[in-house]
Design brief:
Shape: elongated
EC number: 1.17.1.9
Protein name: Formate dehydrogenase major subunit
Strand content: 25-35%
Distance between the termini: 41 Å
Helix content: 25-40%
Number of helices: 6
Order of helices and strands: HHEEEHHEEHEEHE
Radius of gyration: 26 Å
InterPro entries: Mopterin_OxRdtase_4Fe-4S_dom
Number of domains: 3
GO molecular function: formate dehydrogenase (NAD+) activity
Subcellular location: Cell envelope
Number of strands: 8
Length: about 190
């Protein structure tokens, strides 16, 4: 049998083609009115799935400044238009109503979260990093110059791309951290 010939024998294919006299039975006005979510997009941005280190290409469809659909990018040499279940559901990362969109902070020994503006949160983080570096800095160990801190460590993740990992490594090295690792091993 010719390649693809067996598919043409499927009843639903014959119905949709109208070859078996029941074409209208397989269609409805609602079916004919349906349009792809991608059809009305104002812009389409190329992106990379954030879930793992594979780096599958994604097309992000946007209408009126809101993400309407995310699909696999057929031009991606990595995934050739395919996405795993997590990548297929990645639209929820930006559209789910339960997504946190502000910084929340729980004070030491506190029981409730309180909102903070981003600038305050970033200042708190910077202060703690600098204080930890200052308090744990080692200039020498056993008579050898080491210029390091053992109080700061970094663990990269599988969702980081090469450029992000490079910048993180440069930051940690500049801080004097020597415990820098990445768990992105596939």
């Amino acid at each position: 049998m010719a390649q693809g010939g067996w598919i043409s024998r499927w009843p639903v294919i014959r119905q949709l083609r109208g070859e078996d006299g029941r074409g209208d039975a397989a269609r409805s006005a609602r079916t004919d009115a349906l349009r792809p979510r991608t059809e009305e997009a104002d812009t389409v941005a190329r992106s990379v799935c954030p879930y793992c280190a594979v780096g599958c290409g994604q097309l992000v469809y946007v209408k009126d400044g809101r993400v309407t659909q995310i699909e696999g990018d057929p031009d991606s040499p990595i995934s050739r238009g395919r996405l795993c279940p997590k990548g297929s559901a990645s639209k929820q990362l930006v559209t789910h109503p339960g997504r946190q969109t502000r910084v929340l902070y729980r004070r030491p020994h506190g029981t409730d979260w309180e909102p903070l503006d981003l600038e305050t949160a970033m200042d708190m983080i910077a202060d703690r990093v600098l204080r930890t570096r200052r308090e744990t800095w080692q200039q020498e160990e056993k008579g050898k110059v080491v210029r390091r801190t053992m109080g700061i460590a970094g663990l990269g993740g599988a969702t980081l791309d090469n450029e992000e990992n490079y910048l993180m490594k440069k930051l940690y090295t500049a801080l004097g951290a020597i415990q820098v690792e990445n768990q992105a091993r596939i």
